[in-house]
Fold this sequence. Notes:
The chain is of the alpha+beta class. The model is unreliable at about 115-120 (pLDDT under 50). About 50% of the residues lie in helices and about 20% in strands.
Amino acid sequence: MGVIEDATELVGLIKRVGDADLYRRIVKLEGEVIDLTRDKRLAQERIAELERTLKFRDELEFREPFFWAKGDTVPYCPRCWEEKRIAVHITYSHKNSYGEYWDCKSCGANFQTRGLSNKHY
């Protein structure tokens, strides 16, 4: 049996005994246990998220002007990654005589590479 189940069982027993003050205290304790359980779950989720971010960071390589993940053919926005640690693929916009243009749909940043072909990345 878990802590919450134990507390619920105690509430039932105390309710049968009829001690209202003890009943209120146990109900309050049960609420605190539920809050602690939720906080623990949220902390575990945050730890898992940070571990994923660290693993992803180790897989990234900076090749100016973008970040690249091993085996990925689409670069990541350097602004989103460096400012917020959010991995967002940028999109190729177009090419003209001045270079190639890339856009980040997340932060709105625009990037220009000078005459480099996407194949060189």
